[in-house]
């Protein structure tokens, strides 16, 4: 123990210098370390927060889901799913019928003009076979109370009509109807009514008979 005390007495200056050096080195290390700031984090968080203007615009868009290119049509009668439909403004009756699942078995398809253009707030009624249009069914886009006109005298569009629609034409059976479809599939749409004469079996007399019952647009 006495030897240790003597050693400490003899080397106390060196030990003090070592201790000071350790303290100075530790302080320098701490002072040279970069300080982390919370400010950038706070700024980033604020920048990512949606503004009240953005929120208002988002709500405004979600509250207006109906496109201005759509119309609303009330489909009634002999279709699988009669109801009010929202449909594109450039669609036709045929598109509406398909959207409703097609005709029912008792639908009088001969009285429906599948090529007719749809109008906003229109009522489309598909009659059953042997049925007259019901009283009180009106076209709601008109201000008058005129009954909705059925399509018994409507022309058949030979560019868009299907097989069943073409067969409703006078003197046109399944074969001639299919010939019309095959011709327009191969050659494109008819440009004028007289082009129907290019289809086999459609002579001048046939065209004269059909001219008031068909159209191309």
What features would you describe in this structure?
With 217 residues, the protein is an alpha/beta fold. Among the domains are: 69-154, Outer membrane lipoprotein wza fold like (Roll), CATH 3.10.560; 156-215, DNA polymerase, domain 1 (Orthogonal Bundle). The protein is 39% helix and 10% strand. It contains 7 helices and 5 strands. The protein has a 3-stranded mixed β-sheet, covered by helices on one side. Strands 4-5 form a two-stranded parallel sheet. The N and C termini lie far apart (120 Å). The model is unreliable at 37-47, 58-64 and 138-153 (pLDDT under 50).
Question: What is the gist of this entry?
Answer:
The chain is of the alpha/beta class and 217 residues long. Helices cover 39% and strands 10% of the residues.
Q: Characteristics of this structure?
A:
217 residues; alpha/beta; Outer membrane lipoprotein wza fold like; DNA polymerase, domain 1; two-stranded parallel sheet; transmembrane helix; Competence_ComEA_HhH; ComEA family DNA-binding protein
Number of strands: 5
CATH architecture of the domain at 69-154: Roll
**What is the name of the CATH class of the domain at 69-154?**
Alpha Beta
Q: Give the helix/strand class.
A: alpha/beta
Q: Write out the strand line-up for the largest beta sheet, numbering strands in chain order.
A: 2-1-3
Please estimate the helix content.
25-40%
Overall residue-averaged pLDDT value: 75
Q: State the end-to-end distance.
A: 120 Å
- What's the overall geometry? rod-shaped
Which residues sit in consecutive blocks of at least 5 with pLDDT less than 50?
A: 37-47, 58-64, 138-153
Order of helices and strands: HHHEEHEEHHHE
Strand content: 5-15%
State Rg.
42 Å
Please count the helical segments.
7
Largest sheet: 3 strands, mixed
Q: What is the CATH T-level topology of the domain at 69-154?
A: Outer membrane lipoprotein wza fold like
InterPro entries: Competence_ComEA_HhH (IPR004509), Endo/Exo/Phosphatase_dom_1 (IPR051675), Hlx-hairpin-Hlx_DNA-bd_motif (IPR003583), RuvA_2-like (IPR010994), Soluble_ligand-bd (IPR019554)
Domain Helix-hairpin-helix DNA-binding motif class: 164-183, 194-213
Transmembrane segments: 12-31
Biased composition (Polar residues): 135-148
